[in-house]
C-alpha cells in the first residue's frame, strides 16, 4: 500500500492543508513539522497524543504515522482513573502535546514531547521509518467503556486507507474539497475522517475549534465545500435556520453535509432540507470498523437511513439464533455484522474480548440492530443491548419510536427504552424533554401520536419527563445513565 498521505511528498507547494482558527499549515509546512515529530519518536511502539482540537494534535498524529508508530489519542476531558487505565494498558513511550498545555497528574510519569508546528526540517514529509506494513497499527482508539473499562481498538494502516478511499468513492471526495468541522480529535469521526481524510485526498480542513453556527456560515461562505457534524450540531443548525438567512445560504452552497456518530432525527433532516434545499447524508461506523455504510453523494439522501455498504464492506443482519435475516422489507430486525478490510485488528491486551467480538468465519458483531429497505438501504434502530425491545411478541427498535416522538411539536428531546412487564415481556418507556416544561404533552397524546405514525404495538406504555437527556461528548444519548 502506498503512503497514507501522498500529498505530503507529491505536492510541496503552498497549498493549505490544515487551518485551526487563525493558525494554518501548508502541505510543505505540515510535512516539515510532522517529519520532525516522526524523527523523534521513530522506533517506539506507541505514543500518546494529548488530543486537543489543535494544529499540534494533527501534526503529532501525522508524525507518528510517518514514523510507523501507533498513536493513542487521549481525551482531554477524561478523568485520572480512565487516563490511568488507558496509559497502563497501552504503555506509550511518550506523550505528545502542544507547548503550554497543562497535563493532568495521571500523565506526570510520562516523558513529554512538545509539538513544534513551526519546525523546519529540510526534506521532511517522507516516511521517517523503513517500509511499514499495511497491517501495522496506526491508532489505538479507546472505546467508551459502557460495559467495563475502555478497550483499546487497534486500528491498522490498512483500515484507515481503505475506509477513506471507500468514502472518496461514495462521496466523490477529491483534493479540491475543503472540509469544515468542529469535532473532537480523540474519536474516529473527528480524527480519521475529519483530519486524515482531507490529508489523504490532498484537500484541506478548516477546524472550528469549538462548533458554532457563525463559524459554519463563515467557512462555507468562503470556499469550504463539505461539513461534518454530529446530530447535536445539526439540531443547533436546524434551530438557528429560521432566523439566520446567511446560514441558510451558506448551507445551500455546500457540496456535502454529512452527519454521523448517532442517528440524526428525521425532524431535523426535514427542517434543514426545507430551509436550504440541501439534504444531510448519514453514514454508519464504529471505532472497531471505521466506516461501514453511507448514503452516496449520487444516491438518494433518505432521512433516517445510513445508506448502503461501502465498497469492500460485506454487511448482513443476523437473528438471535445466528441465522441470517434475508428479508429486505423495512421491518425485519437483526444485528448488524460486518466483514472487510475496514476492520480493526484486535482489542489491545484483550484476546478474550477480541475472540468474542468475531464469529468463527470473521464477521464482526457490531451490537447494533437494523432493518433493510427493499433497495438495500440500512436503517439502524438502536443498540442490541439497550434499544431492541421485545414487547408482546414483537421485536421493536427504539430508534424509530424516538423519531416519531420528535415529530410531535411538544417534544424537544426523546429517548426510548424497555423495562420488564409481566404481560408484554417488556413495555416501551419514553423519556421526554418537553418543548415547554410548563405544559408537557400528555402521556396518552404521545402514545396515540406514535401509534398513528408507526403501529399500535409500538406506542409507549409509560412516559417519563426530564429536564435533559444524558449525553456523551459526541452527543450520543447515554441510556444507561437514565434514572432507574
Written overview of the protein:
With 484 residues, the chain is of the alpha/beta class. Among the domains are: 7-194, Rossmann fold; 392-481, ANL, C-terminal domain (GMP Synthetase, Chain A, domain 3, 2-Layer Sandwich). 29% of the residues lie in helices and 27% in strands. It is built from 14 helices and 25 strands. The strands form 6 sheets. A 9-stranded mixed beta sheet has the order 2-1-10-9-11-12-13-14-15, with helices on both faces. It has a 4-stranded parallel beta sheet with strand order 4-3-5-6, sandwiched between helices. The chain has a 4-stranded antiparallel beta sheet with strand order 16-17-19-20. Helix 3 (55-66) links the parallel strand 3 and strand 4 (70-74). Helix 5 (157-171) packs across helix 6, helix 7 (213-220) crosses helix 9 (245-252) and helix 8 (231-240) packs across helix 10. The mean pLDDT is 91. Its EC number is 6.2.1.-. Keywords: Ligase.
Amino acid at each position: 500500500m502506498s503512503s497514507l498521505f501522498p500529498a505530503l511528498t507529491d505536492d510541496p507547494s503552498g497549498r493549505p492543508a490544515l487551518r485551526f482558527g487563525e493558525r494554518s499549515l501548508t502541505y510543505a509546512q505540515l510535512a516539515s513539522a510532522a517529519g520532525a515529530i516522526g524523527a523523534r519518536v521513530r522506533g517506539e511502539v506507541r505514543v500518546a497524543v494529548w488530543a486537543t482540537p489543535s494544529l499540534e494534535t494533527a501534526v503529532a498524529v501525522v508524525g507518528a504515522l510517518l514514523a510507523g508508530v501507533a498513536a493513542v489519542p487521549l481525551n482531554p476531558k477524561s478523568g485520572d482513573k480512565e487516563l490511568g487505565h488507558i496509559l497502563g494498558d497501552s504503555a506509550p513511550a511518550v506523550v505528545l502535546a502542544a507547548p503550554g498545555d497543562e497535563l493532568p497528574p495521571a500523565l506526570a510519569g510520562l516523558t513529554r514531547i512538545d509539538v513544534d508546528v513551526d519546525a523546519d526540517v529540510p526534506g521532511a514529509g517522507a516516511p521517517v521509518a523503513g517500509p511499514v506494513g499495511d497491517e501495522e497499527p496506526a491508532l489505538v482508539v479507546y472505546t467508551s467503556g459502557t460495559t467495563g473499562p475502555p478497550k483499546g481498538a487497534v486500528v491498522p494502516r490498512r483500515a484507515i486507507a481503505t475506509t477513506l478511499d471507500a468514502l472518496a468513492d461514495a462521496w466523490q471526495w477529491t483534493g479540491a474539497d475543503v472540509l469544515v468541522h468542529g469535532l473532537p480529535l480523540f474519536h474516529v469521526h473527528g480524527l480519521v475522517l475529519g483530519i486524515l481524510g482531507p490529508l489523504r485526498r490532498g484537500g484541506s480542513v478548516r477546524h472550528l475549534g469549538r462548533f458554532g453556527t457563525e463559524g459554519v456560515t463563515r467557512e462555507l461562505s468562503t470556499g469550504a465545500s463539505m461539513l461534518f457534524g454530529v446530530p447535536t450540531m445539526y439540531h443547533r443548525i436546524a434551530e438557528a435556520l429560521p432566523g439566520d438567512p446567511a446560514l441558510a445560504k451558506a448551507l445551500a452552497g455546500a457540496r456535502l453535509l454529512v452527519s454521523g456518530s448517532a442517528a440524526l432525527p428525521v425532524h431535523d433532516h426535514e427542517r434543514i432540507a426545507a430551509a436550504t434545499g440541501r439534504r444531510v447524508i448519514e453514514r454508519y461506523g464504529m471505532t472497531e470498523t471505521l466506516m461501514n455504510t453511507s448514503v452516496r453523494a449520487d444516491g438518494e439522501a433518505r432521512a433516517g437511513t445510513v445508506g448502503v455498504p461501502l465498497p469492500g464492506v460485506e454487511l448482513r443482519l443476523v437473528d438471535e439464533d445466528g441465522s441470517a435475516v434475508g428479508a429486505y422489507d423495512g421491518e425485519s430486525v437483526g444485528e448488524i455484522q460486518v466483514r472487510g478490510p475496514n476492520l480493526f485488528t484486535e482489542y489491545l491486551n484483550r484476546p478474550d474480548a477480541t475472540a468474542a467480538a468475531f464469529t468463527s468465519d470473521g464477521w464482526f458483531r457490531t451490537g447494533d440492530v437494523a432493518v433493510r429497505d427493499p433497495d438495500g438501504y440500512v436503517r439502524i434502530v438502536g443498540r442490541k443491548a439497550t434499544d431492541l425491545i421485545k414487547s408482546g411478541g414483537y421485536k421493536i427498535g427504539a430508534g424509530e419510536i424516538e423519531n416519531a416522538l420528535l415529530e410531535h411539536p411538544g417534544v424537544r428531546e426523546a429517548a426510548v427504552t424497555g423495562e420488564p412487564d409481566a404481560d408484554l415481556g417488556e413495555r416501551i418507556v419514553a423519556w421526554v424533554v418537553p418543548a415547554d416544561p410548563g405544559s408537557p404533552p400528555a402521556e396518552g397524546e404521545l402514545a396515540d401520536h406514535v401509534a398513528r405514525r408507526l403501529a399500535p404495538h409500538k406506542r409507549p406504555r409509560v412516559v417519563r419527563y426530564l429536564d435533559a437527556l444524558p449525553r456523551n461528548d459526541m452527543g450520543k444519548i447515554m441510556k444507561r445513565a437514565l434514572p432507574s
